[in-house]
Amino acid sequence: MSVESKQLVPGLAGIPAAESRVSYIDGQEGILEYRGIRIEVLAEHSNFEETAWLLMYGKLPTREELDGFRRRLRAARELPKGMVDILRAMPRNGHPMDALQAGVAALGMFEPRFEFGSESDFEHAWIRLLAATPCIVAAFDRLRAGKEPLAPDPELDTAGNFLWQLTGERPDDLAAQVLDCALVLHADHEMNASTFAARVVFGTEADPYTSCSAGVGALTGPLHGGANERVLESLESIGSLADVDAWAAARFAEGGKIMGFGHRVYKVKDPRSHALQKLGARMFAKLGSTPIYDIALRLEKIVTDRLGGKGIYPNVDFFSGILYQKLRIAKDQFTPVFAIARTAGWLAHLYEQMADNKLYRPGQIYLGGHEQPYTPIEKRG
Known about the structure:
With 381 residues, the protein is an all-alpha fold. The chain has two domains: 21-222 and 332-354, Orthogonal Bundle (Citrate Synthase, domain 1); 227-326, CATH 1.10.230.10. Helix content is 56%, strand content 3%. The protein contains 16 helices and three strands. It has a three-stranded antiparallel sheet with strand order 1-2-3. A hairpin with a 2-residue loop joins strand 2 (31-34) and strand 3. Helix 1 packs antiparallel against helix 8, helix 6 (119-144) packs parallel to helix 7 (158-167) and helix 8 (173-186) packs across helix 16 (334-354). The relative contact order is 0.15. The mean pLDDT is 92.
């Protein structure tokens, strides 16, 4: 039997899997663009609803389009009673990402059956998923605390309404702006693991709910969406500002990884981190700083001075968890917030793929034997 002459690329690193116009990354220069617009510009001037439209349709909406889009989103937030009953039946000690993955998949069962290739069916799923995903996250958080879910507030945008449904209090304008900016920054990131997972499932002509559920599943891992939880746990383990230098020195000595630094793509500081840190400074100045923020700033300086020359800088996960904590979002809800944002990107990629869909079927390098004999069970062992 001939030996296969295939070359393994672990993790498919750098192997193009699709053509796309949704987003672009230049890791050497620290550039991230959505549909050709720099992320720094969107973080400063745009908002999550407008960004979701941009990702889907490739252009910024007119005022009339944006107003109509927002009305449709606000009308699609309410969860079916059966959906709430499903969330209510879930174990209260379960991780919110597991609840979200199951919830997104279940949501599709309450919606009209999706016909692959139908523009109208996809648009319905797009609106429903963007609107309902934050409500699923907030509802489970309240139910596990023994509280009833809150009805959405039609006067609030996506970020503000999420904070309202989560805490039961109308958010401070700056706090809502910080979360809105975080949603913009996390909305898409080219062919990342969760986007690839969603595209693979959608490639089988599964519906958008099932496909986004797969994206949520990929996002649960600490090497992808779960990193910001680990960053905060790491910062909390330091203890105090006076302990940062010694803690970092010990990590360097043992060769351990410092969570929140370095990125698979970026060799300079993550451009999303710049934007989030800038807005976070405003929030802490207005609402009061926290010891964990001061620890983070000191650790950033130490690590950047030591490893910046090797292309290791803070990534977006380093600051996002600190800001979410200040917004009174539970630590295990950080990744669900990431999923709320990334749903916009997943759906934009799925819509793009639907126009010329191909079933993903990568090859493999087989390392097993051939022509092995079959041994009857009475003669085994």
